[in-house]
Amino acid sequence: MGQSSHASGGSLLDIVFFDAQQSVLRVTGEEIRVTSGRRRRALSRALKCGRDVDVDLRELSFADSSLMLDLAVLARRLRQQGRALRLNSPQPHIRKLIELMGLDRLPAVALNVA
Predict the structure, then answer these.
(1) Which of 5, 27, 79, 88 is deepest in the core (most CB within 10 A)?
(2) What is the mean pLDDT of residues 92-110?
(3) Count of structural domains within the chain
(4) Burial 35-55, CB ≥16 within 10 A → b, else e
């Protein structure tokens, strides 16, 4: 989704991009601790959008626990505002990481598998 993110105002280098019109956080490629700085702006925009946030995980090929922790913090902050986080279409190995980390069991978090 890097190129489509570019059309929506992101850059080809964006691994995490937030589309405020659709309230969708797109996570693509490989997300690890080293790339965590790139996701901060998108996470901050998602928190400020005023709506529930959908996380599109279809094109996420690899993630470590740092991404799951950032999503857990986002979910907690959204919940404090009466909003929810929906994790959509993770690949099987990403779904397993979500479940191992317990992200899918947090209040106001839904895991939607395609």
Answers:
(1) 27
(2) 97
(3) 1
(4) bbeebeebbeebbebeeebbb
